[in-house]
Amino acid sequence: GQNIDQPTEMTATEGAIVQINCTYQTSGFNGLFWYQQHAGEAPTFLSYNVLDGLEEKGRFSSFLSRSKGYSYLLLKELQMKDSASYLCAVRDGDYKLSFGAGTTVTVRA
Amino acid sequence: GAVVSQHPSRVICKSGTSVKIECRSLDFQATTMFWYRQFPKKSLMLMATSNEGSKATYEQGVEKDKFLINHASLTLSTLTVTSAHPEDSSFYICSARAIGQGDYEQYFGPGTRLTVT
Predict the structure, then answer these.
(1) Buried (b) or exposed (e) across B41-50, using 16+ Cβ within 10 A?
(2) By the CB < 8 Å criterion, does B87 face chain A?
(3) Nearest-10 Cα torsion for B26, B29, B31, B33
(4) Which of A55, A88, B6, B103 could form a disulfide with A100 if both were Cys (CB 3.0 to 4.6 A apart)?
(5) Which range (A15-24, A48-57, A68-77, A92-101) has the least confidence?
(6) Average pLDDT over residues A39-60
(7) Is B32's CB within 8 Å of A99's CB?
(8) Across the interface, do A87 and B43 touch by the CB < 8 Å criterion?
(9) Alpha-carbon gap, residue A35 to A49, rounded angstroms
(10) Nearest-angstrom CA–CA distance, B111 and B95
(11) Residues in CB range of B72: below 8 A, 6 or more apart
(12) For the residues of B50-112, what is the DSSP string, one character each?
């Protein structure tokens, strides 16, 4: 099975940077995903890491260390619209995703 | 981009009735579709994996006779909640993986909010 941990809540100021950590223990690993989910909506894809290192995509970056079972999502230049839940998900060899409980990020003016 | 639709977006039904939720890939063919449920402020829990033309594979603890899944074509999967009870009230989300899609994404539908009274 998969055990995926991420903080429950984080708060930051508009324009600031926030880093959401995710640790995982898995029986199989075939990639790590980050999704954004607004209340009552489906998740939207943010990033994907399968090799160690940093993937940068505009204001969002994601890092992976497979040996440490660790990833983070970095949100830069925070905007009010970034207030949402951020889900860390690990994919196994059968392409099944296991999700963490999500981190609710609140951006304050 | 790849679009997945779900219908209905919201449904209210009475205890004991059955409800069908459709998941369609609109502009691509999906070899595999996944069904998740999500309780308020909780994460998505995978219920089952649906492959076109074959029986769905259910996750441990998910009753296959209660949650009937049919993947009749490469663009449509349905989830039927049979003999619904209030504890089945949840947000149900499907996702689809495209044929030939490299490594990557599952495309999520917008979800269906089921309320059983």
Answers:
(1) eebbbbbbbb
(2) no
(3) 0
(4) A88
(5) A92-101
(6) 92
(7) no
(8) yes
(9) 12
(10) 9
(11) B52, B78
(12) EETTS--EEPTT--TTTEEEEEEETTEEEEEE-S--GGG-EEEEEEEEETT--S-PPEEP--E
Q: Radius of gyration over alpha carbons of chain A, in Å?
A: 13
The values of phi and psi at residue A12, to 5°, are -150, 165
Q: Is B5 on the interface with A (CB under 8 A)?
A: no
pLDDT tens string B19-64: 999 999 998 888 889 999 998 878 899 999 998 888 899 999 999 9
d(CA A18, CA B98): 33
CB atoms B43 and A101 under 8 Å: yes
- Which residues of chain B neighbour A100 with C-beta distances below 8 Å? 43
